[in-house]
Design a protein that fits this description.
Elements (H helix, E strand, L loop, with lengths): L20 H29 L15 H24 L21
Helix pairs in contact: 1-2
């Protein structure tokens, strides 16, 4: 006995840029509170080094306030890039991150 299963056709494949924009917007929105929490923990650790707050319970690599602040900056920039992609459909780095150390050399042949 043979059983044939006939499946319906799904949505056609889309070959356009920016087809996951809704996911980028959702990820960017979730990264903003994570960056805020990293800023809070970083400044809490900095305040505990200055003896303004009680001790800090974390040890190891994440016991340094510089790591938390750097992580917060990376999360915030990533959220900004993802939200820009979600709105416009293209990745754009913030102006401060454009590397101008080695500008493109024009006119050399």
């Amino acid at each position: 006995m043979k059983v044939r299963i006939q499946l319906g056709t799904g949505a056609p494949l889309q070959r356009k840029a920016g087809k996951n924009r809704h996911l980028a917007l959702a990820a960017g929105a979730l990264l903003i509170p994570a960056a805020l929490m990293a800023y809070v923990v970083g400044f809490w650790r900095l305040a505990s080094e200055m003896d303004l707050t009680p001790g800090f319970a974390v040890t190891g690599l994440f016991a340094h306030w510089q790591v938390w602040i750097a992580l917060a900056v990376v999360l915030q920039v990533t959220a900004s890039v993802l939200e820009g992609y979600g709105r416009e459909g293209e990745f754009h780095l913030p102006r401060l991150l454009h590397l101008r150390v080695f500008p493109l050399r024009r006119g050399r042949g």
